[in-house]
Amino acid sequence: MAALGMAALRRGSGAAPRLLAVAVSCQSCRPKASQCSGDGGHGQPRDHHPAAPGRARRGAEPGPAAGSQPLPAEGADTKTYLWARYHEMKKLVYDLLPPGVCNLLNPAAIYANNEISLGDVEIYGFDYDYTLAQYSNLLHSMIFNTARDILIEQFKYPEGLGKYDYIPGFAIRGLHYDVQKSLLMKIDAFHYVQLGTAYRGLKPVPDEEVIELYGGTQHIPLYQMSDFYGKGPSLKQFMDIFSLPEMTLLSSVIDYFITHGIEFDQVHLYKDISDAIRDVHVKGVMYKWIEKDLEQYILHGDEIYAVLNRLVNHKKKLFLITNSPFSFVDKGMKHMVGKNWRDLFDMVIVQADKPNFFTDRRKPFRKLDDKGSLQWDKINQLEKGKIYKEGNLFDFLRLTGWRGSKVLYFGDHLYSDLADLMLRHGWRTGAIVPELETEIRIINTEQYMHSLTWQQALTGLLERMQMYQDAESKQVLLEWMKERQEIRSLTKNLFNPQFGSIFRTFHNPTYFSRRLVRFSDIYMASISCLLNYDVNFTFYPRRTPLQHEAPLWMDQLCTGCMKTPFLEEMVHIR
C-alpha cells in the first residue's frame, strides 16, 4: 500500500488529492483520540499538555475525535459493528484503486538494494551462463531427460522412471531440500517453512506432518540450515536456474518409489541424482546440445552486443569469468556478439571453478591459444584479448589492480558469483534474476493488486479488532482469518501453485530474497536492462518503512492500526 501511495503521488497532481481524500475518509476507521500516542495517530488528544516521554497519560478521558465512529457501548451488538467496519474497509480499498492503477512496475527496470553510481564504475565483469547467455526453457527438459536416463542406464534405477517427463513450472529457485526427510520446501528469511509449500515427491505434505517432523514447529534451526554456499549438514538450497530440472527429477524419482512402495535410502538417492545432473554438465553433454542449435537455445543475443559495445564506447574495461569451457563460450559469444567478440574484453577467464576461484589461492592461471589448447608459460601478466583458464581472484587482483567499488560484477548465482566478491573483496555486484520479469507482470495484474490490497486491509482489521473477545466477535474474527488465509493462498498460486513467489513467503521475504539483498547492490531480469539507463546513472534504493515506522504505510493509516498499544484498552497489561 505504501508503494501504491508513492506511485500515485508520482503520477501527478490528480493523485495527491485522491490520497488526501482517502485519509479524510478514514475518519470512520479512527480509534478514540486517547488510543493514539503522540502525533503518530489520526487524531490528537483534547488535552494539549504532553505526557512525560515513555509514560502513559492518565486522567481526564478525551472524547472521540471529530467525525469518528464511536466504539460500541458495553453490551451492544459488536458483531454488527465488526461487519460494518469490514464493509466500510472493503469499499475504501476498492475506491482506493482507480482504473489503470496496475502496471506500476517496469519489468525492464533495475532495482537497487544499495546506493550505487555507475559513474564511479570503471570495470565491468560478467559471468557467462544465465548472465550474458540467457537460455530457452527447452534446455531444462533436455537436462531432465538426460539425467533421468543416466539414472536408469548407469545407476540401474527402475525403468519405470522413463515414463516421467519434465514438469515446467513445478519448482522455483531458492527452495531447500531436507535430505533425511525427503522434503522439498520454501523457507523464509527467519528460517520458517512456509506451510503449504512442503513436498515429498510430487505431492504436498500436510502442514501437521511438517510441524511434527520438525519437533512441533515450522522453524528450522540454524545449525541445520545451509552454510555460506547453500550446503548445510542436512539441507541443500537450490540457488541456480540449472537446478530447476534437478529438483523436478528428485521429486519425480521419490514419487515413483513412494507410489510403488519401494524403500530407498534418502542420502544415496540424493547423491545419485546430484551426480547424474553433474554428469550432464561436466561431461559436456549440455554444451553439445546448445552448440548444435544456438538459435533455439540462446535468447536476446543482439541485446548483449548492444550492452557490451556501449560500455566499451564509454571507455569502460570489461572482463569475463565463467566456469564454462572456452570452446562453448566462444561459439555462444560469436553467435551473440560476432566473431571479434574478444576485442571487447580486456580479459577472459574460463573454467574458473567458482566459487573456489574467489577463495582458493593455490591454482595459478594458465594461458590458452586461439584454438583453446593449453600453454605452459608462467603467467606474469594478464594480457588483453588472451584467454586464461582456472587461476584465482588473489592473483587476478595482484596482476590487474582492479579492486573495490570501481568494479561491478554481474552473475546469476548469489553464492558462487556474488557473495565472496561483495563481502570479502568490496566489489559492487549485480544479480541477474530472470524470474523477475514474470513476477512483475503478475504483480501488475488487477487481480494481484486487489487481492494484496484487501489482504493488507483485512490484516489491519484483525489486528485492530482482536480486542473484542465475546463469542460472536470471536466467530467474526475467525471468519476473517479464514478469508485472509484464502486470499494468501490465492495470491501465492498466481506465481506458482506449488511454491508461490521466489521473493516472498506470504508476507515475509524468502530465504532467497534475504540473500539477494545481502549479496547484490542491484538486481534485474537481464543484463540488457542496462540499456535503459545512462552510463553515469545513480541508483537510489527506496526507503521502505521499518516496523516502528509502520504508521507511514497506507494500510496502517486506513485501519487505525498504529502498531502501538492502545493506552486505554491495554491498561490491563500495566
Automatic annotation (TrEMBL):
Keyword annotations from UniProtKB, A to Z: Hydrolase, Magnesium, Metal-binding
InterPro entries to which the protein is assigned, alphabetical: HAD-like_sf (IPR036412), HAD-SF_hydro_IG_5-nucl (IPR008380), HAD_sf (IPR023214), Pur_nucleotidase (IPR016695)
Keyword field contains 4Fe-4S: no
Protein name as annotated: 5'-nucleotidase domain-containing protein 2
Gene this chain is encoded by: Nt5dc2
Spans annotated as Disordered: 34-74
UniProt source species: Eudyptes sclateri (Erect-crested penguin)
Cofactor binding remark: Binds 1 Mg(2+) ion per subunit.
Binding site for GMP: D129
Molecular-function annotations in GO: 5'-nucleotidase activity; metal ion binding
Active site annotation, chain numbering: D127, D129
